[in-house]
Amino acid sequence: MPGSLAVVNIGQLVTLAGPARPRVGAELRELGLITDAALLVQDGLVCATGTYRELCTRIAPDAIVIDAHRCCVMPGLVDAHTHLVFAGNRADEFEQRIAGATYQQIAAAGGGILRTVNLTRAATEDTLLASARRHCDWMLRGGTTTVEAKSGYGLDRETELRMLRVLARLHKEGPVRIIPTLLAAHTVPPEHAGRRKEYVRWIAEELIPEVAAAGLAQFCDAFCDDHAFTVEETRTVLTAAKRHGMNLRVHAEQFRPGTGAALAAELGAATADHLETVTDETLHQLQAAGVQPVLLPGSVFALGRTNYPPARKMVEMGLSIVLATDFNPGSSPVASMPFMLSLACLHMGLSPAEALAAATINAAFSLDLGNHVGSLEAGKQADFLVHEFCDYRELAYFIAAPARPRVFIAGREVTP
After folding, report:
1. Are the beta carbons of 253 and 275 closer than 8 angstroms?
2. Which residue(s) pair with 224 in the sheet?
């Protein structure tokens, strides 16, 4: 938004200023805190951060002034793994899991991903847009300002393209920035049962070239697991995507080790996501290859499981961890990034500072946006939150609190 904005009377400003790369090790706890602070914005970009005493003379006479009332101001949250676009819900499967059914049992009985595929195929583009906008508004209310979102509930040309068009429309209408990912390799659709090889060939040789040529997806993802795609099938898909200039993400090691994380390292993927069952050997491979682990505690929580990914070990090994919701209608119907911070602290051994860095600057770098969002530094887009609490730790400490920060994107206050 053109013009000047000054946020003043900030009790605690979390800048996350630091090196222009993902944070690792002790860096995850270095939040760039400033007390008695001010934040200056010009034409939608951060132009200065510092103490009010340092910056008060630089506030333009015509600036819009926001009083933070001694509360905490921090960067907008970045959700780097979601399944934002789908039709219907699977509340009945939620009940089945409560009664003892496993994710795999529900999928084998015709539920799971394929249930949502059928509903999504039957929905119009406008219906899907309205549903995705609703989900995005939930995220925005909690302070999420950038969202990675996948296709994958179409599994045919028409619906996969429809989902990607919805993401493009949602990004264009704003205010949330949407980063689109092609996930046609989510599961094998029923019409290709017994013809897996043909389906994988179609994704690699027909769908990926079309999507890449149209610029509909920045990333390509694949679900590598026993009930999804094998390592070799995943290799075929991701190698084709890389050849067509798409960056890579991989669902890996969620239910069994040896399902995709090593391949992510081999292919130089941006991220390996889930990693609940990852081994030390594979973690070393990811670290050496610079692959960022995207940790999804919401899916562990919502499935009633206890094997959270080994985040503490990852930090100690020097991996640049990311936190995300995995928002989807089945295994993680959770849209709240603040709740992910709470889960990461309580069940994965992260400190509130580490969790916040993983949900902002590291998440931004995993989406090739680290030089634009994820921290409050001069020249970056002014995506920030003005909270009603005074200490950043309260974001994780008050679990599932109905707090609603004031949300600013590119220096403009937005209300879902």
Report:
1. yes
2. 229
d(CA 340, CA 346): 10
- Contact predicate 217/180, CB 8 Å: yes
pTM score, whole prediction: 0.97
**In a 10 Å sphere around its CB, with 0-12 CB exposed, 13-18 middle and 19+ buried, how is residue 205 labelled?**
exposed
Instruction: Give, in order, the Cα–Cα distances in Å from 247 to each of 110, 137, 403.
Output: 32, 27, 35
Q: What's the CATH code of the domain at 11?
A: 2.30.40.10
Classify the phi-psi angles of 263: left when phi > 0, otherwise alpha if psi is within -120 to 50, otherwise beta. alpha
Q: Which domain holds residue 203?
A: 78-366
What does 93-119 look like in DSSP terms, one character per residue? Answer: HHHHHHTT--HHHHHHTT-THHHHHHH
Are 229 and 281 part of one and the same domain? yes
Q: How many CB atoms lie within 10 A of CB 93?
A: 21
Classify burial at 156, counting beta carbons within 10 Å of its beta carbon; exposed 0-12, middle 13-18, buried 19 or more. middle
CATH code, domain with 227: 3.20.20.140
Q: What secondary structure does DSSP assign to 199-248, as a single string?
A: HHHHIIIIIHHHHHHHT--SEEEEBBSTTSB-HHHHHHHHHHHHHTT-EE
Peptide bond before 175: cis, by omega within 30 degrees of 0?
Answer: yes
Same domain? 90 vs 233: yes
Mean pLDDT calculated for residue range 388-407: 95
Give residue-wise pLDDT tens across range 90-143.
888 888 888 888 877 887 787 888 899 999 999 999 999 999 999 999 999 999
For the stretch 141-161, pLDDT in tens is: 999 999 999 999 999 999 999
The total of structural domains in the chain comes to 2
